[in-house]
Amino acid sequence: MRNIRRVFRIVLFVVFGLVLHYALPQHDVVRVVNTYQERQDLNDWTRVFWARPDDQSAELINRDVQFIQTVKRKTWLLGFIPRDATEVMVYRNEDTGWSWPFYFKFDTANLQTEADDLVSTSETPKWAVMTHYGWRNEYLSAFPNAIAIRPVTGPDVTIIPWFNIGFFVVLILAFLFLRAVWQQFRERTLDPLADRAGDQMDHVSADLAERRSRWSRWMDSWRSKK
């Protein structure tokens, strides 16, 4: 039973971590190569990787989606350590509207214009920081969704994910607070109830034992007469 609980906690922790990794904002140092628009089919289960900014999009089986092609600076340790190498990365540019994840993005056209203005070549590069969420998977045709883009002086810029740091600090504080509340509730309410229930069980057990003893003595008295 203990192993089952342990496996369940590990699975729950992994799922929760994957959801956070998908939904929390990430920052990439990129050079915009091109922008384009393409018709995408949304008629299978991979629809979960695409935004649903309004009720109408839930009924459509395909729609036009804007994309931003970039050359991305490779990193180690989830983006904290830059590498002297680059790779191709394509972002989709969709409004999130009021749906999950809650970025409340409504400026797709503005972001596409900003990306167009940052298009450059390897000879005269223009570097920028692309804020996005989501994953890139070639087999599932999944693309991270661009949230914002801002120009920077070069590829060696240091990015500090203040939002993610604040989010995890608040998450840890909330966990500690709820844990303290639960401990107090258990000590003040559940433990006394368990103690009273244990005492009642002890009294019932003692009463049964006494009755059993009386019955045994009565039976012994009859046996002695015989």
Automatic annotation (TrEMBL):
Transmembrane segments: 159-178
InterPro entries hit by this protein: Phage_phiNM3_A0EWY4 (IPR011088)
Domain of life: Bacteria
Keywords: Membrane, Transmembrane, Transmembrane helix
Pfam families (alphabetical): DUF1523
Name under which the protein is recorded: DUF1523 domain-containing protein
Organism encoding this protein: Thalassorhabdomicrobium marinisediminis
Organism placement in taxonomy: Bacteria, Pseudomonadati, Pseudomonadota, Alphaproteobacteria, Rhodobacterales
